[in-house]
């Protein structure tokens, strides 16, 4: 490590995001469900049920209208999900919003396909014409249908590139650029319904509802994807102040700016970053803060993954940075008291390192588990040592290659329970159970006793019998490393598959699902 930032807590004057009431999530869910019920009720009020009962081509057309209404409603809800609305980001987190966005996106797409097929079949049946001739006639003679065809083509391209097999073959920049066509697709596909759709024009209530939903969705995108970032960047004027190398392929970028104490960002959150250093600056990348924000300087740490991230190491002081955010719900707001366990893998340790400086735990209440392939890949040693000495954090290294099964543990520890356990709960972990972390004794952390943590048991999970806790090698090892995992808040960050395995282990070890906090940055 060529440089380090001494961990500091955010001073009282630093801006904070306001805590969002938990009931807001319920309200949002109810509102989304009601929107689907409303469009269904509007269809019923326009005679949809009677037409279906009547049978024939009219029933096919009526069903096509209903699938079109559902598709339109879900498309607009999908836009709202990814409009980066701050309150939604704080309540749900961007990873959960992205999952819902994906599910709703595919659902609305297939409803749209059903709408097209059923409407064409219904119209062709009513006119007793050829299906392909009817489709051609609709495209070229119905108002707005050319726009709808272009919009549908854009949405098809987005859906195809969102399939996991195709997505893995694309660079992030390419996928992100193609995904922006979803906005164009929605914008082009919906107007034909607003102009000529029977269910949109059937009553003033229908017209007002659809125009309002369309305007709210468009307004949210313009406000939060364009307006808010422009205002924030004009206000804070972020500039690269220095760039340091933390390890092989790992670079930290320090940024300064104006009024950073008024930037409402929390440890654990991330921004979409653009650096104005030449061609390619328009492509944004999500990078977390790797140090607790304190109002004077921000730090992000980037791993060279072969895409646009490779440019970060060549940044020079003075380069302007554009940031969009902050995003993410992996913050101290989720902590309700008690022990905390932070488990990170690879570059996933960066938001956890920032969280380590902000969480209000007491000495002996925090455990930091660092999963890496080798000692050379372990970054921020000096800062981790600082937390161990000054805040009583227990550090555990788990080093080694991946296991040949889904596991959060290294290969040589994943096959059996408690293989990775140190001789004492305070012992640092390394590649092998009998090897101490370089520069340390093979006993407790400096300043700590070589025994169990105060108030902890070396054996069973507190408050539970062994018979009540499911047995699983990964969960057993986690219980051995962190005996009070069942009453802890667990913060996890790393690759998607690794995080899923770590979450499973934590929950099987007794941690309540609501106390396991994750944030995924995969796309």
Write the layout of secondary structure elements.
Elements: H1 23-45, H2 48-54, H3 56-81, H4 86-92, H5 94-127, H6 131-141, H7 145-162, H8 164-168, H9 172-179, H10 181-189, H11 191-196, H12 198-201, H13 204-236, E1 239-247, E2 250-256, E3 270-275, E4 285-288, E5 298-303, E6 321-327, E7 340-345, H14 349-358, E8 366-372, H15 381-391, E9 394-399, H16 411-414, H17 473-481, E10 489-493, H18 496-508, E11 516-518
Parallel strand pairs: 7-8, 7-10, 8-9, 10-11
Antiparallel strand pairs: 1-2, 2-5, 3-4, 3-6
Helix pairs in contact: 1-3, 2-3, 3-5, 3-13, 4-5, 5-6, 5-7, 6-7, 7-10, 17-18
Q: Descriptors for this entry?
A:
523 residues; alpha/beta; Elongation Factor Tu (Ef-tu), domain 3; 3-stranded antiparallel β-sheet
N-C termini distance: 30 Å
Give the SSE string. HHHHHHHHHHHHHEEEEEEEHEHEHHEHE
Cα Rg: 27 Å
Structural class by helix and strand composition: alpha/beta
Percent of residues in helices comes to 40-55%
Tally of separate helices: 18
- Give a quick account of the main beta sheet: strands, pairing sense, barrel closure: 5 strands, parallel
Membrane topology: Multi-pass membrane protein
Subcellular location: Membrane
Domain FAD-binding FR-type: 233-333
GO molecular function: oxidoreductase activity
